[in-house]
Batch of 2 targets.
Target 1
Amino acid sequence: MNSNPFSLWVYLSQTPLLWLTVTLLVYATADALSMASGRHPFANPVFHSMWVIAAFLLVTGTSYTTYFSGAQFVHFLLGPATVALAVPLYENRRVVASAILPMLVALAVGCATAIVSVVLLAQALGLPRSVVLSLAPKSVTAGVAMGISESLGADASLTAVAVILTGIMGAMIVTPLMNRMGITDFRARGFAVGLASHGIGTARAFQVDAVAGVFAGIAMSLNALVTSLLVPLAVTLLVR
Amino acid sequence: MIASLSLILLCQLVGEIFVHSLAVPVPGPVVGMMLLLILLLLRDRFTRLAHGPLQGNGVEAGAKGLLAHLSVLFVPAGVGIVQKLDLLAEHGIAIAAILAISVVVTLLVTVATFLLVGRFMAGNRPAT
């Protein structure tokens, strides 16, 4: 019936099935390569999946909306995964309770640094106001950052891209950076990467060390809270 | 597995209801996470609560299954870069540089604060 392969493509390219399959298949391949490289920081599976799928969409002329009709099933799980962070938090509650004060101070200082640094740099380089606002919440997880961006009247889809890029950069740089600085406290290392690079940093931390992963998860959740409160304030004070 | 996933979704749902009805500027899933944590802690105190997914490592296993593949969940949002190519052609290098500098500064400041406060608490102030 479908003697014409083109009409089969036209049919399949509009189905969620194809794009869900592409997302999982490309990620599974990228993850296998990352594993084969001994989890080398530059073999980051999110980064490589992202550009491969983006290139595939551009080559086939597929719109992001069509792609997202399939990929949304994966995207949806970001919310439940945030809830699931309660389990590592629960299992490591004693380690966490013993470090509660360093965590809270580092949270306040780190969160302010993340927002203020990006706003000041973006203004210094003369980026348009809408771009500055869209970059401001880049250190929190995608769903939360997009919500903050919308409430500021900024471009939420640009925010999502900035969030993912920040996550990937943090995940790639954290291990070489911390090793070079001679920092061996995996609680501190994990906390820093979870705060700066949300879930992608947390995923990286879990690859390196279980305790680092737990602290990254806590930093990521607490930062989502604090950033939602701090970004509107920082924008009022800093953005011209 | 289904019961564990249901419990996780239920926590998120209650979180969303809480956040939206009280208009608190906190994401629903974060409230859901605190709720699940409280449930797990209550279960240890009141054995009567240890049913369904709250017994025999049920929800723990489900949650770990989700977290084991945390990074794949960011791929769909990342592919959204295809919608921003014109903006990135104009400001891409500046944006990448800003994000890179900001992330390094944030990592260093956070880790330094954590270690300094930790040392201060332990009683031996670092020499300045």
Target 2
Amino acid sequence: MAWYHPRNLGEYLWRLSAPHVILSILLVLCLFLGELRFDWAERIMGAYLASTNAGRPESGQIWEVGQQARSAYQALEKIVTDRLASQREARESTAFVQLAERLQPGQGAMLSVDHFRRLYLDLPETSAREVANPLRLLEILSQHRCDRVYVSKNSTGSGLTVNLLDTANQILESLDLPLQVLSLNREQEALHGGRLEQWPDFQGGIYPADLFFQELGSLSEEVREAVVLQPRRLLEIEGTIVRVAISNEVAGGYIRLGFEAMVAGTPKVLLTRGREWAVWQIHSRLEDRAGNGAAAVPGYGERS
Amino acid sequence: MTGGAAWVRRLAVLVYLALGAMAVAALGAGVMALVAVGDLPRVPSPLSRIIETPPTEIFAATGERIMLLGGREAVPLGRVATSFIQAVVATEDHRFWVHHGIDKLRTVKALWITLTRPGRVEGASTITQQLAKNLFFTFERSWLRKFREMLIALQIEAAYDKGTILEAYVNQIPFGARAYGIEQAARIYFNRAAMDLTLAQSALLAGLPKSPTYYNPHRHLERARERQRIVLDRMVAVGYISREQAKAAAEAPLELARGEARTGSGSYFIDWVIKDLEQQYGPEVVYHGGLRVTTTLDPQMQRLAVESVRRSLERIDETMGAPREEASSEPVQAALVAVESRTGAVKAMVGGRDYHESEYNRAVQNQRQPGSGFKPFVYATALERLKIHPATVVVDRPVRIPIQGAADWTPRNFERGHQGPMILKQALMRSVNTISAQLVARTGPAAVVETARRCGIDSPLTPVYSVALGTSGVSPLEMASAFATLASGGVRHAPFGIRRVEDAHGQIIAEHIAGGEQAIAPQVSYQLIDMLKAVVDQGTARVVREMGFTLPAAGKTGTTNDYQDAWFTGFTPTLSVCTWIGYDRDRPLHDKRGVGLTGGRAAAPLWAEFMLRATEGDPYRDFSVPDGIRFDTVDPVTGRPLPAGAGGIPVALPATGSFAAGDETVPQTPEGRLE
């Protein structure tokens, strides 16, 4: 039968009381009241969201804070790792020059007093005297005023700064160790094979050894000691020193000297250094002699 | 159709429309949910993970923790006062224990009010919704954001019990004054643990999250108390407390931890330290890295500094006749910095009258003209470069210094008149402007600037003659630090506030190494100290002695034109302290009779008050005299040596060379005077 519009109230009421209408209304009412009473919609939604939580993005303020925290930890971890690495390098260093090689410019490391003492004692005596007054160090170290030692490579990388610290981290004494000085010390450790001409800074400053030592002998003892700071090293050379070179460069108040010797028929060079003011004195004397034609600068084998 | 049928028909239409509307709403909600769920953030699991970020802890030199930065100081719910939990539930969400994330009735009511009353927005967020908002969302107001917040709240409710939710909420809500979470708030505002809060305190704190700045009890106590009463009323309405309890709590004194807790007395100092940390490590590391920072702050000294500043300003308000109402509109401000001379460690710092009223740090950021307080650098330059000494005779007379391309400079003395010849020590003691002008004319202003730089003044200084009278702005911190250079025998130690920085595991990130460099010769430094001691003993700062400070001390007052700034920077062998008094804007300091307040009258008493208490019990220790210094007694006018008891004044002099008037090494006029 086709649907038709109810014609009177009785028909309306009849239709409204139809089971499916009543059921529908009851269902809606149940849903509505059930929601008010039992929050089922919230629970279902909440449970659904909780079940999909793992697949959702880590976004929002709290996660951003977490990311910032992670990145802060990484930054701090790098600082700590670098610091620990430089500490380890410092601990394992057996000489200042080694420490200088291992540290980056601007980087520093803390040493124990005993470790510093060992490194200091490892320096050649003249260098040790030069970087610190041993009596002053004795005064500080023997009175146990020094707690730790902070060694840093300066920002230009040209040397080390050593700070002796008390328990309050106050500097008791600050020492400068120019890399030039440390490098020269290392160079002195071995005889180099070859001839003086290998070092460009010696060009124009190579003299016969006998002339050099002759002029050296004519200078005062104070000047002689400042020119040849480590005579013992020269004495240790097995062979004859044939030529001496004076560098045309000054570094940290020192001038490099080269002593060329024939060791078992092979030319070898010992590098050393002298104080600038003293080396200039002997240099000017040698130049005067050269001007008078007395100081020839022959190459090896050309010597008459 | 009959009338009854028409009525039933209309009713049916209405019912169907309502059902239809509900269906549409449900459908809409479903669609919105689908849209919103798409990029809904993940909720951390467990929920306590939100408070796992360790805070950066800042410690005083004594080891006392003075500040927590970032992070959260979480406490279990069992260690939070019940009164606070009740207060917060009653105020924020009284159906918290029964709803399931959303308070539907309150939401409908709020929606109705929002839609029907233009301009009024009613909030209905439950505690869970607020937690969701604080964790994941910005404060941007949009329907979609609100809906997402609601969904997250549903998820949180589905996954966690009420206790866990409430615990997370109370441990992360902002209370203002850098306090996040109830434990921090309780410590900052009441200097006690969250579990020890009283009902009155709980009610006050529970009212703050609504608007931490507006209700900040340190700044707006009345507003905060009004809000406290509302909270108490809510607690009564919900049935947590009786009317009598509420009344008693509303009338109970609050005793805010003002000036003593973490963000109190040390705050100017802490701000300075945080800025330094941020510059070194970046804000991310500072606020999220969980650093442990040991500072140089001496809490006892800091408390004394705060107290001294407060009392001095009260005295100055009284002297100036400034009623409190006027003072509150633009009050006279003060700054005080105390620096340890032998290291540069900043022991105390006060940057203003009240940190809670103004966070502008006048001890560091204020660059004000130091006036005569700058003269020691002029004298140091003169001693170094002109080969003169404290017994050299100088003449106080009208001075005209020609300046290329500008009008001549004609400095005048503070007291207008001229006193004729006198020795240099006397000139500094009396702070004679014309003599400083003569000295800078001889040394050149660039040399004076260079000396000030060496001593520790970093602010831009203009190399003009008037620099001798302190016309370039400097900060109290710089002045304290530069005078510390004199106190330590001419050795400059840069001021610092951070002694050591460690990560959360105690690994050292950085530590301060206190190295100094000889900025000026110890002999020059000592001659200056001797002259500046006379300033304290008999000169413009003699009020220090009048107030009973008896330990050896030296210093210099400073007063700028029109009495806009009053300075005194003084030091003992161990501590250098600078005090400044003035308005933030250029306004003169006058007493009730219209007489200007000088450095000696306004700033030196503050210095003395602080030092009297800060050095209490310290042994008597004078400045150490370096080699190359000898003492003699000379005529203060002619500079000639006098036998003891003949009315001369003692002077520290270089051990070598003649010192009397007529000394050939001293550039002088034929009368034997420095011109």
